[in-house]
């Protein structure tokens, strides 16, 4: 599949999970493809980075479900901030905010098809106040060593579709990561009805330890080979984050004319154009 | 000075993970490990537990021989609940009870400033020893009431240990586990700290101390080994 073919499988109002973490191994080619579609009203579930920012910039997002949105080396994403701080109903977005561990439990609960997972995180904070649907639970056990008290019952975060980017994949949809961190990508795949995977390179068979085979084809509905498809986020060890380009993205967001130029040059055509223009930069 | 005050936060923690956010806090954790707390575990800022403290602004260790362990984000989140961890994090706002906010300033639906989001703060404070590093001690940070509680108050938290700022060191031994000024850095007065704090700040009965100076050895480690590029100078105003 091509990134555009993946984007064409998505529909308005979907809940879409995006793998990676902050500004690391994000399926950016797929995100860019979504930006070029008329898709709208998406709920995006993500350990947020510029995936959230770009989708906000293109007005694709109705709600963000995340524990954070950051570009790592730049603490805050300008487009996510703008969308949140805007009073304009057309561009402002809702933010459902969880603790990181709770968020992971939400994906785990969805992956395990459990109604909730208990966690102490979130008690004694405003997480419960800003998520009025969250319920708490007391442990039914009184055995020695088991903790009493109140726990948050984190509900599942089921996804209509998940998007992840892997270092390597085969055509059947098995995915391999070669960097230091799997992030939560396999959980996103397992929590979703459908998963689409982009990869640096399609391979006929895998090198490296089997533990690096992170995502199984039984959860994957389509694979797109998109070299440098995580750019400008990192995709270790194939490439690190393009810090210069990330700074350019953040700077362009602060200036409407500059953003229009940035869009025209990099984003509005297609993925090969994006990669060609980045190379020329 | 600030890095050393941060380092002292990890005194006596043994084999726990020192999780630090912010330049001086990261330097402090690595300095503590190189000096009085050799049992501490430190990371490369990513998924690796490092064999020794890394210098700032140098390529992170990627080769396995520089790692003593693997702690990808999902295991880090496991460790947060497990608890062998002392985190030193930042806060956009902090109240006298130790409630912290890293999520947003202002209204929930239309914040004046959208910040990071709750990140790991709820889990950190409820299960881990938690300290704070605040590079600019102002009334904007030390407020009467935080706009969103992302970190739990001292009375609910596992163990709020201390707050290091560019002006001094605070703990939570004030009345009812509230913030208390323990020491001021050289050249800083108690009045100056109080002027920059948005609520009354109690002090110990036996007076406010002076933050200790770095030893020659610590200075050598900071300047020559851990932060040769002087990144700490960029975080703290002169």
Automatic annotation (TrEMBL), chain B:
It comes from the Bacteria. The keyword Transferase applies. Coiled coil: none annotated. It holds the Pfam family CoA_trans. Keywords: Transferase. One of its GO terms (molecular function) is CoA-transferase activity. InterPro entries: CoA_trans_fam_I, NagB/RpiA_transferase-like. Residues 195-215 are annotated as: Disordered. Belongs to the 3-oxoacid CoA-transferase subunit B family. This is Acyl CoA:acetate/3-ketoacid CoA transferase beta subunit. It comes from Nocardiopsis mwathae.
């Amino acid at each position: 599949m091509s990134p555009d073919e993946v984007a064409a499988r998505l529909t308005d109002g979907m809940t879409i999970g995006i793998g990676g973490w902050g500004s690391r191994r994000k399926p950016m080619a797929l995100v860019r493809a979504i930006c070029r579609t008329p898709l709208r009203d998406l709920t995006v579930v993500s350990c947020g980075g510029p995936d959230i920012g770009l989708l906000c910039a293109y007005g694709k997002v109705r709600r963000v479900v995340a524990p954070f949105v950051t570009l790592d080396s730049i603490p805050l994403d300008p487009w996510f901030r703008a969308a949140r701080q805007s009073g304009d109903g057309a561009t402002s977005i809702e933010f459902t905010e969880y603790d990181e561990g709770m968020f992971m439990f939400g994906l785990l609960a969805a992956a395990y098809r459990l109604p909730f997972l208990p966690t102490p995180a979130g008690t004694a904070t405003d997480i419960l106040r800003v998520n009025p649907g969250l319920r708490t639970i007391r442990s039914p056990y009184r055995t020695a060593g088991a903790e009493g008290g109140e726990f948050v019952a984190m509900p599942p975060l089921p996804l209509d579709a998940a998007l992840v980017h892997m270092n390597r994949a085969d055509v059947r949809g098995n995915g391999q990561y070669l960097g230091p961190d799997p992030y939560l990508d396999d959980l996103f795949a397992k929590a979703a009805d459908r998963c689409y995977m982009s990869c640096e390179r399609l391979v006929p068979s895998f090198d490296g330890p089997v533990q690096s085979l992170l995502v199984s084809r039984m959860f994957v509905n389509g694979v797109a080979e998109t070299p440098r498809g995580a750019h400008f986020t990192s995709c270790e060890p194939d490439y690190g984050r393009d810090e210069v380009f990330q700074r350019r993205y953040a700077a362009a967001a602060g200036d409407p004319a500059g953003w229009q130029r940035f869009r025209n040059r990099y984003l509005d055509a297609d993925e090969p154009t994006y990669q060609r223009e980045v190379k020329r930069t | 000075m600030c890095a050393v005050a941060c380092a002292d936060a990890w005194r006596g923690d043994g084999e726990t993970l020192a999780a630090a956010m912010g330049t001086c806090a990261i330097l402090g954790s690595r300095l503590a490990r190189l000096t009085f707390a050799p049992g501490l575990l430190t990371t490369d800022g990513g998924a690796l537990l490092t064999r020794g403290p890394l210098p700032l602004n140098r390529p992170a260790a990627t080769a396995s021989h520089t790692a003593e362990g693997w702690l990808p984000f999902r295991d880090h989140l496991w460790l947060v609940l497990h608890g062998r961890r002392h985190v030193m994090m930042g806060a956009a706002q902090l109240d006298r009870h130790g409630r912290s906010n890293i999520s947003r300033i202002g209204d929930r639906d239309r914040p004046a400033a959208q910040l990071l989001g709750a990140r790991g703060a709820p889990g950190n404070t409820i299960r881990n020893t938690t300290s704070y590093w605040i590079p600019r001690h102002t009334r904007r940070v030390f407020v009467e009431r935080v706009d969103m509680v992302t970190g739990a108050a001292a009375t609910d938290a596992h163990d709020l240990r201390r707050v290091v700022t560019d002006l001094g060191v605070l703990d939570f031994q004030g009345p009812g586990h509230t913030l208390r000024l323990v020491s001021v850095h050289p050249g800083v007065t108690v009045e100056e700290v109080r002027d920059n704090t948005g609520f009354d700040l109690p002090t110990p009965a036996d007076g406010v101390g002076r933050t200790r100076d770095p030893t020659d050895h610590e200075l050598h480690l900071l300047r020559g080994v851990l932060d040769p590029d002087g990144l700490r100078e960029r975080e703290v105003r002169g």
